[in-house]
Amino acid sequence: MKFSRLVPVVLLLAVVAVLLTVLAAYGIGGISSGVAQAARWLFLAAFVAYAVQRRSLTFWIVVSMFVGAEIGNDYPAFAVNLKVLSDAFLRLVKTIIAPLVFGTLVVGIAGHANLKQVGKMGLKALVYFEIVTTFALFIGLAAINLTKAGVGISQTGIDVTDEKLQTVEQSTSDIILHIFPENIAKSIAEGQVLQVVVFAIIFAIGLAMVHQKHRRPMLEWSESLSEVMFKFTNVVMFFAPLGVGGALAYTVGKMGFAPLLNAFQLLLTLYAALIVFLLVILLPIAFIARIPVKRFIKAIAEPVSIAFATTSSEAALPRAMEAMEGLGVPRRIVAFVMPTGYSFNLDGTTLYLSLAAVFVAQAAGIDLSLGQQLIMVFTLMLTSKGVAGVPRASLVILLATVASFNLPAWPVFIILGIDALMDMARTAVNVIGNCLATAVVARWEGEFIDNYVAPDPVDDLAEADSALAQHGH
């Protein structure tokens, strides 16, 4: 059967399965639970056939969600054993974090060692990035503490006694000392993400201060390391459907469908928080900086659509840079601010991580103080630098940070079930934020061209033909 012909079949089977399940649940029409179960598995078989033809990792993750949930519902005793799949996936993810964070931070900081040459423009850009991402952080925290999307998830059958946040009383001195590594190998082995971040930042600053002949080899090595780890992440993500399916089967087998309702609530919370961020933070900034909002929206429509569809900011980067030049931002400003923003100005990702981290704590029944929440999100904000180009890379960051704060990992797999839908929105906001940052810095530098008219390639070609004709060619 052709790819397009499977769509109505899958939709029809989905409707029939839902209808029969509802009728069986309420005892209407004499429909037995066995008939409803058979209808659901028939729908899943068609769904899998559709996924085979699509060959999309995101779609396979969605399929594995449905299959895992059905296994957990129909065969709970067997579903509990599938936790090994999610544990194996989690172990693979944890191997990524230290080299990925080190490589991206070193390249992001030492790679811009020419900040002295760029001067005040670089400083203005970094100040702007820090202010806006901080607003995103606090909006995320406010939203999740307001909706409490993770509260109320039953932990029946889940062994969390060894996974909860440490309750050992620590002084301010202990907390501060815990940030700084005494042995980088020990920090990596223990999953102390913030210590790895501190080491990487100091290493990058030292690298930026040495002579070019010493800096270049280490910078190229770090760049190669980060690129390899991006590919490593992509390879590991091929195991995501198994990890998600196993985790969801285990979760539903142990706790039923209640956690999925919380996940949907988290999804709504994220979208609402991102809309608030766009309207309350970015829109006023555009007005204050006197950015032509209508022209700006028209210019970014295509790159934002690309980012939303592909869940990768990097996929939208070339078109976004071109769009900002067409809006009236000089190329030298676009070339500096846009790539730098991809490392330091991840508004959507920062907001999402603050939501997700607190959701994990709420799901685990752990009441984090505001200070603990800020330390956790500050860690997430630092470790997320430079990962905008990789779909679902924020999952890697989230899992590693959750582990370093001794929070349980199982709520993260509840998030992973809807991560693709959340990734689309946060990536689109990342692109919007970076495009606006480019325009704002140009205005701040006094170089934004208000009435800029982008040259028409057709007109340029006509002028070239005319010039050739005049010269007798």
UniProtKB/TrEMBL annotation:
<keyword id="KW-1133">Transmembrane helix</keyword>
<keyword id="KW-0813">Transport</keyword>
<dbReference type="GO" id="GO:0006835">
    <property type="term" value="P:dicarboxylic acid transport"/>
</dbReference>
<keyword id="KW-0472">Membrane</keyword>
<keyword id="KW-1003">Cell membrane</keyword>
<feature type="transmembrane region" description="Helical">
    <location>
        <begin position="264"/>
        <end position="289"/>
    </location>
</feature>
<feature type="transmembrane region" description="Helical">
    <location>
        <begin position="92"/>
        <end position="113"/>
    </location>
</feature>
<feature type="transmembrane region" description="Helical">
    <location>
        <begin position="34"/>
        <end position="52"/>
    </location>
</feature>
<protein>
    <submittedName>
        <fullName>Proton glutamate symport protein</fullName>
    </submittedName>
</protein>
<feature type="transmembrane region" description="Helical">
    <location>
        <begin position="232"/>
        <end position="252"/>
    </location>
</feature>
<keyword id="KW-0812">Transmembrane</keyword>
<feature type="transmembrane region" description="Helical">
    <location>
        <begin position="395"/>
        <end position="418"/>
    </location>
</feature>
<dbReference type="InterPro" id="IPR001991">
    <property type="entry name" value="Na-dicarboxylate_symporter"/>
</dbReference>
<feature type="transmembrane region" description="Helical">
    <location>
        <begin position="59"/>
        <end position="80"/>
    </location>
</feature>
<dbReference type="InterPro" id="IPR018107">
    <property type="entry name" value="Na-dicarboxylate_symporter_CS"/>
</dbReference>
<dbReference type="Pfam" id="PF00375">
    <property type="entry name" value="SDF"/>
</dbReference>
<dbReference type="GO" id="GO:0015293">
    <property type="term" value="F:symporter activity"/>
</dbReference>
<keyword id="KW-0769">Symport</keyword>
<feature type="transmembrane region" description="Helical">
    <location>
        <begin position="193"/>
        <end position="211"/>
    </location>
</feature>
<dbReference type="InterPro" id="IPR036458">
    <property type="entry name" value="Na:dicarbo_symporter_sf"/>
</dbReference>
<feature type="transmembrane region" description="Helical">
    <location>
        <begin position="351"/>
        <end position="375"/>
    </location>
</feature>
<feature type="transmembrane region" description="Helical">
    <location>
        <begin position="125"/>
        <end position="144"/>
    </location>
</feature>
<dbReference type="GO" id="GO:0005886">
    <property type="term" value="C:plasma membrane"/>
</dbReference>
